[in-house]
Amino acid sequence: MKKLLCSALVLVISFGTSASSSHASSTLSASQISSYFQRTSLSATLADPAIIVIDRATGEVIFEKDSTSSRKPASVMKVLAATATLEFIDPELRYETRLYSGQESASLVLVGSYDPWLTNTYKEAVANKRAWIGNLIKKAIPVLKNSQGIPFKSVSIGYSGLFTKDRPLIETAFKNAGFKATFTPLSKSEVITNSKEEIATVYSPTVREMVKFAILWSDNNLANRLVLNASSVAGYGMSNLGVSMTINDAVARLEVDPTGLEIFDGSGLSKENRVTAKLVAELLQKIRDDPKFLPIYEGLPVSGVSGTLEKRYLTTAPQAVGLVHAKTGTLDGTVSLAGYVDSGDRQYIVVAIADHIHVGSVPTNAARTTIDKLFGKLAAPLISPAA
């Protein structure tokens, strides 16, 4: 019996030592991180990337390569756009779109509030539970009849608060419903005088939820429209120039060095956009500890789990599944990733921008694999010490 107890005790001690050793070896020292990142940054698959690694707790730069060079961010730009959105717009705000019958027969009044969530695509509406303009149009059809109940063949629509690209799509939706639509922009006072009875209203989710969705799924249209609205609130107007000024304003308020920042849209689709890895990393450092910007962190895709990282890391760096929270980016010739890596009781901020790679799926996938392994090398779960 004593021998059995002794054997069991040895086994427990051995297991505890093994677990402790495993935890110790699973996280890297600063010098090990620097050495590994230095070697990997020279990989031909990354084609001279810009990289930076920061210890989030201390702010210490563990490794950097060309972190102050101007690079094409691709969809990493959405992090900057989301920051500006939350800087200037109430996160609990919901946008609304109202449809009224008009004072004249065969007329409608469509009153929007530049709802970024409103979609003109039925497929997208169903897939993402988005408000669909077609539903409003369907509710208008019973109103568009003469006194004998015969539908009109044409309809006059007064409107306000719609994005420019929405109007032709709404026109097509009416055409598909059997109506020829003509449109007239209305001022606020004209909306009041031309409206008769409310037919229907649709509401967006909160800005908080829309930011999370745009970051999680890299929704170009949603991200850009949100920051256009932020630009309007900030007083810069709804234009790409306004977006640039708004994002620069938000960056300045957070006291992040804007050197190297050039902005041509809020989605990252423009190949003229430029950021530095250092700027993005400093921004990630600032917003992580500010509750105002929590929706950005909550919306970040998680390695092997959610969003645009759902199918990554599963084979490229399986040890990092669930431990990387980062925004992806892809353009022709560009692969980027920026976010946070959990490493035991630490969290690192990592930004990698490879914007000199060859165009094509093969070099793109090769760069993604290398970047996944790069981030994955840091990743380690938090293991509680034995009692």
TrEMBL record:
GO terms for molecular function: serine-type carboxypeptidase activity. It holds the Pfam family Peptidase_S13. The keyword Hydrolase applies. Gene3D superfamilies: DD-peptidase/beta-lactamase superfamily (3.40.710.10). Coiled coil: none annotated. The lineage of its organism: unclassified sequences, metagenomes, ecological metagenomes. Keywords: Hydrolase. SUPFAM superfamilies: beta-lactamase/transpeptidase-like (SSF56601). Belongs to the peptidase S13 family. InterPro entries: Beta-lactam/transpept-like (IPR012338), Peptidase_S13 (IPR000667). GO terms for biological process: peptidoglycan metabolic process; proteolysis. This is Unannotated protein.
